[in-house]
Every structure is written in structure tokens, then in C-alpha cells.
Design goal:
The structure holds two protein chains of two kinds. Chain A is of the alpha+beta class. Chain A is elongated and about 100 Å long. Chain A folds into two domains: 180 residues, no CATH class; 185 residues, no CATH class. In chain A, β8 and β9 form a beta hairpin. Chain A contains 13 helices and twelve strands. In chain A, the strands form two sheets. Chain A has a six-stranded mixed beta barrel with strand order 2-3-10-5-7-6. A two-stranded antiparallel sheet of chain A has the order 8-9. Chain A is 55% helix and 19% strand. Chain B has a single domain, classed as Rossmann fold. Chain B contains seven helices and ten strands. The longest helix of chain B is centred in the C-terminal third of the chain and has 16 residues. Chain B is globular and about 50 Å long. The chains are: A alpha+beta, B alpha/beta. The interface between A and B is medium-sized, with 22 and 29 residues. Chain A: Belongs to the ABC-4 integral membrane protein family. Chain A: Pfam families: FtsX, MacB_PCD.
Chain lengths: 396, 226
């Protein structure tokens, strides 16, 4: 029953200096809220990435060049490689799209825009990446054969260069080469860290002509006949490419299935989440140090009061308890407000990412905030408890 | 029956080596139950050190101190806090009330640490406040009370646990004549009702209230005036 009285002393101590208690609470509030919010942002980013990769379909393989092992020369991935992947030797491959990508600056009138991704491929590319056209048309196989300077642009590019007007049929400059816009893709939203709509797609031949030259392809995107045929397709692709590249040891290319892509990308966003969480954890730590600081000030300020309490017979444990409860109440209160702030904050889109709350992070942050009070309050509290009564009473 | 206080060859040294200060140099003192004793001495004579040790606020460097027949020599901090709570009521020159806390709560404080239940606590604290004539000031905070009233609250706090002894360190030192008279009157009444009182003073009029006066010079008892 004495614990209740001691808790009442602690509450009285906190309310005696509301401004200070409030500011200390704010430190913990910010720490807890940022832990919850930043983990939710990281989680939101990773689920966006997962969705966008899932959107690719389950029957896709991407082949990309890989650095050669020492002592060998890596052969580039070529259009011929891509063409060879479709044929009698690979019954499970439906189509293989060669892909090159480039850095490009687009201009229209006085406006310029650095396009996130300028891609050269064939019309099948739109199919494999689940890209739908919103205005105009996609380009055709004939455009690829004729190397026509046509381009399909993403929603972001359209908004940047042609605000409020229809881009279809207009001529825009890509690295000072005029391209005719034939279509605008439907907006996809951002996929985690990348704006999925900041892109332009042109025929492979045109892109190689005008921008990238005829070096290695960036990727070959292979579509298998079905999701079940994917392992067979992968085996067939491997056999054909090994033959063409005369591979005996380690391959100079890399095949990733959608699953593997997902794993790789998830790992990236997990790193991102861990990074965000550690920044948040540091702010929580800073909040905890704030508690120590304030409790030390409180103890110093109230040395006389501690002396009085000891003189009338307060045992060490009750002084310790009083100041520990004060510190824990500060951090619990801050933690509770922080949970509320974090949950409210995660309702808003942050930097293009819709945060997704992780319930365990809420629990964890709250529990940690409670422990922070105990941990960071224990030093000042034990200092208060250890004071000799006569010294405490003489303190001015 | 053993005396309330029995002190033998009490020594207290602050610091060490050349800079050591010997506040008490082998002091002997016995206080019987129901006595009223005034301790007098020049400043630096060691009288405050003596009272602090008697009140278990400080520990001696050497010698024996028996409080109510209990040898405190081997006591640890927890046992001392228990002694302070149950056996001793201490009145300070500077009142030492907990700030921003009502008179009633201040008087209840020792009972809280003694683990007395709320209802009983209130009853006993009100009785103690009544005894010092402050029944109408229970919900005033220290800064709303005069010096004399604050000291009376402090006396109520000292006697609320029915201690074996009430120790007062210059209780009238910070008070005007009227307030001093009130405070001394309360101490007289306490003693008349059987409570043992030891107080420090440097005023002869105050000492005149006591049954005997102990003079402390250079850390020793120089003489007893009955």
C-alpha cells in the first residue's frame, strides 16, 4: 500500500514543474513516434516494391549481363542473343524482349526534364511490364524495324513537359534529337524509392541509333508460356546462352526470376527500413538521455526535500521508488503520446510512400519507452537514494 | 529502566590528517525518560554535531550511542531510517517542511513511511496539528504560513509518530519573540505530558525552560546546570 503513496509523491513532483515535464515528455514522444512512423514508411516502401514486382507477372525472367571472372572476357548480351532465345530449342519461351536503358534529358519548348529511365525495347515490353496506354497508342513492330523516332512516355514525363495539354503527336527533344510522342502510359504510382511513371519507352533500334549505341543490352526480358513452364524456360535459356557465350565455368550473365527479383528488392528495402529504424532509435536514445538529464536536475533541485524525507524516516527504497516512478511516468506518458502521434502520422503519404503500420513496432516502441524511464531514471534515482540525510539537509 | 539516550565517549572527526576537525572529543551524556534538556555552547563547540548524531542523521566516528536501550553501533542505513521514523522527532531551526505541500500532508509524511493506513494517518495528523493549535491551517502550504506557524507544523510532524524523544535544533532561532513563546510553550506542554525533549539553544531564556542545561565546550561536556 505504500507504493501507492510513493507514486502519489512522484505525480506531485512531476506536476510541480509542468513545463519541464512536458518538454522531457516531448523528447520521448518524438523518439517513439519516429520509430513507429519510419518503420511504417520502410514497410510501406517494401510492400509497394512487392506489389510492383508482383505486377510483372509470375512468368517473367530477366537476364542481365554480369562482370566477367578474372581471365575471361565477358560477351555482351546482344539482340541476336535475344532472338536466339525464341525458337525450336526453347519450346517454353514465349517471347524475349531485348532492353536497353539510357540517361536522357527531354525538352519541349522551354521546359526540360531529366527522364528517370529511358528504355529502348519492342512492343512486347509493355505486355511483360503490365503497362497500359492511357492516351494515344503504343509503337509497333514496324516502328522498331524502321527505327522510327517515336516514343511512349510515362505520366510524370507527360506532366512535366506537357502540363495541361495532350502530348500525343507532339515532337519532343531527347538529348536534342526530335522524337514524336505517340502515347502516354497509365500512371502506376511510385514503387518504393523510384517513381514508376518517370520513364519513356522508344523502339530498341531507335534508342540504340540515337542514344546508347550498339553495345551490350541492359536486359533481356523473357516471358515463359506459363508460370509452371518457368523452370523449363529458365533451363532452356541457360543452355542456349551458355552455348552462344561458350560458357564452361561461371556465366557472364545472370538470370533472375520474379521470385528472385522480389527477394533481392525486398532485401534492399529491408536495409532501408533498418536504416530508418536506427535513425529513429537514436532519437529515442536522445530522448532517454533527456530524461536522465532532467531527473538529475530534479534530484539536485530537490536535495533538501530528499533530506527532509530521509530525516522523517524515508528508507532508501522509497526515495529510489519515488524518482524511478517519476522517470518512468515521464517516459510512459511520452511513449503513449508518441504511439498516438506515430499512428496518426502513418495515415498520411510521406515522400510518395504510403506507410504501413507494423503492430509489433508499436508494441516494441512503447515497451522500450517504458524501459527507458527505468534505465535512464535509475542513475539519478539511486543518486537521490544514496544521499546522506545530514548532507542533503545542509544543501542550499 | 534504561535511559532514553546513553552516549559514551562519543567522537566525531571531519576530514583526516592535518586538516582533520574534531567536532566531538569523547562526549558522555545520559538523558532519562521524561527529561527536558537544553544543550548550550558556542558556535563550533560541537552541539549541532551531537544533536545530528542523536537524531541518527549523522554517524559518529567513535564511541557508543544507545537509543532507548538499542546500540546503534552496527546499524546500517535501512535500520537508521527505521529509527528516525519510529523513535525520533526532529525539529529544525529552518523548519524544513516539504515545499508546495499542505501542512496536513507534511505532518502525515512520517506516517506514510511508517506504513500507517490513510484514515488513521489523517486522524493522527489532525490530532497533532490540534495539539500545536493549527487545526484551522491544515490545508495551507508552507509559503502561506508564518514562521511560527511553520515551526508548529514541524513540531506536529515531529511528535505525530509518538517518538521516544523530540530533538530540536535551535527551534526558536528564526522566530520573533511571540512565536518563540508559543513554540516553547508547546515544548513545555509536550514535556509535561511525559515526552522527552532535547533542544539546542544559545539563549538563556530558552534554556530556562529545561530541567537541566548541558554546556558543550570543544566537543566535551563542560558542565551540567540543574
Amino acid at each position: 500500500m505504500r507504493i501507492f503513496e510513493i507514486a502519489a509523491f512522484a505525480v506531485r513532483g512531476l506536476t510541480a514543474n509542468k513545463m519541464r515535464s512536458g518538454l522531457t515528455t516531448l523528447g520521448i514522444l518524438i523518439g517513439v513516434a519516429s520509430v513507429i512512423l519510419l518503420i511504417a514508411v520502410g514497410n510501406g516502401a517494401s510492400s509497394a516494391v512487392q506489389q510492383s514486382i508482383a505486377g510483372l507477372g509470375t512468368n517473367i525472367l530477366t537476364i542481365s549481363p554480369q562482370r566477367a571472372q578474372p581471365g575471361t572476357t565477358a560477351k555482351p548480351l546482344t539482340t541476336a542473343d535475344a532472338a536466339a532465345l525464341v525458337g525450336a530449342d526453347s519450346p517454353d519461351v514465349k517471347y524475349a524482349s531485348p532492353v536497353v536503358s539510357a540517361q536522357a534529358t527531354a525538352g519541349y519548348g522551354d521546359t526540360t526534364h531529366d527522364i528517370g529511365q529511358f528504355i529502348g525495347s519492342d512492343p512486347r515490353y509493355f505486355d511483360t511490364t503490365n503497362s497500359a496506354v492511357a492516351q494515344g497508342n503504343l509503337f509497333s513492330d514496324n516502328d522498331v524495324q524502321q527505327a522510327r523516332k517515336v516514343v511512349v512516355i510515362g505520366a510524370t514525363v507527360a506532366a512535366e513537359l506537357f502540363p495541361g495539354s495532350d502530348p500525343v503527336g507532339k515532337s519532343m527533344l531527347v538529348n536534342n534529337i526530335p522524337f514524336t510522342v505517340v502515347g502516354v502510359l497509365a500512371a502506376k504510382g511510385s514503387s518504393g524509392l523510384q517513381d514508376g511513371d518517370d520513364l519513356a519507352v522508344a523502339p530498341l533500334t531507335t534508342t540504340q541509333n540515337a542514344l546508347t549505341g550498339y553495345g551490350s543490352l541492359t536486359q533481356i526480358v523473357v516471358q515463359a508460356r506459363s508460370a509452371d513452364a518457368l523452370p523449363n524456360a529458365q533451363a532452356q535459356v541457360t543452355t542456349i546462352l551458355n552455348g552462344r557465350h561458350k560458357i564452361t565455368g561461371t556465366a557472364d550473365y545472370r538470370i533472375l526470376s520474379q521470385d528472385q527479383l522480389l527477394t533481392a528488392r525486398t532485401a534492399t528495402t529491408e536495409t532501408f527500413t533498418v536504416l530508418l529504424a536506427s535513425v529513429a532509435a537514436i532519437s529515442l536514445l536522445v530522448g532517454g538521455i533527456g530524461i536522465t538529464n532532467i531527473m538529475l536536475v530534479t534530484v539536485t533541485e530537490r536535495i533538501r526535500e530528499i533530506g527532509i524525507r530521509k530525516a522523517v524516516g524515508a528508507p532508501r527504497s522509497s526515495i529510489l521508488g519515488q524518482f524511478l516512478i517519476e522517470a518512468t511516468l515521464l517516459s510512459l506518458f511520452g511513449g503513449a503520446l508518441g504511439v498516438a502521434a506515430g499512428m496518426i502520422g502513418s495515415q498520411f503519404t510521406i515522400a510518395g510512400i504510403q506507410p504501413v503500420l507494423v503492430p509489433s513496432s508499436v508494441l516494441l516502441a512503447f515497451a522500450v519507452s517504458a524501459l527507458i524511464g527505468l534505465f535512464f531514471g535509475s542513475y539519478p534515482a539511486s543518486r537521490a537514494a544514496k544521499l546522506r540525510p545530514i548532507e542533503a539537509l545542509r544543501h542550499e | 529502566m534504561s535511559p532514553v539516550i546513553e552516549v559514551r565517549d562519543l567522537r566525531k572527526t571531519y576530514g583526516s590528517g592535518d586538516t582533520a576537525v574534531h567536532a566531538l572529543r569523547g562526549l558522555d551524556l545520559t538523558v532519562e525518560k521524561g527529561e527536558y534538556i537544553a544543550i548550550m555552547g558556542a558556535s563550533g563547540s560541537g552541539k549541532s554535531t551531537l544533536l545530528n548524531i542523536l537524531g541518527c542523521l549523522d554517524v559518529p566516528s567513535g564511541g557508543k550511542y544507545l537509543l532507548d536501550g538499542i546500540d546503534t553501533g552496527e546499524f546500517d542505513e535501512e535500520q537508521f531510517s527505521l529509527l528516525r521514523n519510529r523513535k525520533i522527532g526532529f525539529v529544525f531551526q529552518s523548519f524544513n517542511l516539504v515545499p508546495r505541500t499542505t501542512a496536513l500532508a507534511n505532518v502525515e509524511l512520517p506516517l506514510v513511511y511508517a506504513g500507517v493506513r490513510r484514515a488513521q494517518r489523517r486522524e493522527r495528523a489532525l490530532a497533532a496539528l490540534d495539539l500545536v493549535g493549527l487545526k484551522d491551517r491544515t490545508h495551507h502550504r508552507p509559503n502561506e504560513l508564518s514562521g511560527g506557524q511553520q515551526q508548529r507544523v514541524a513540531i506536529a510532524r515531529a511528535l505525530v509518530t509518538s517518538p521516544a524523544i523530540v530533538l530540536a535544533d535551535e527551534p526558536t532561532g528564526n522566530l520573533d519573540t511571540d512565536s518563540s513563546r508559543e513554540v516553547l510553550g508547546i515544548l513545555d506542554r509536550l514535556n509535561a505530558s511525559g515526552r522527552t525533549v532535547v533542544l539546542i539553544t544559545h539563549e538563556d531564556e530558552v534554556a530556562a525552560h529545561a530541567m537541566r542545561t548541558v554546556r558543550v565546550v570543544d566537543g566535551r561536556v563542560a558542565g551540567v546546570l540543574v
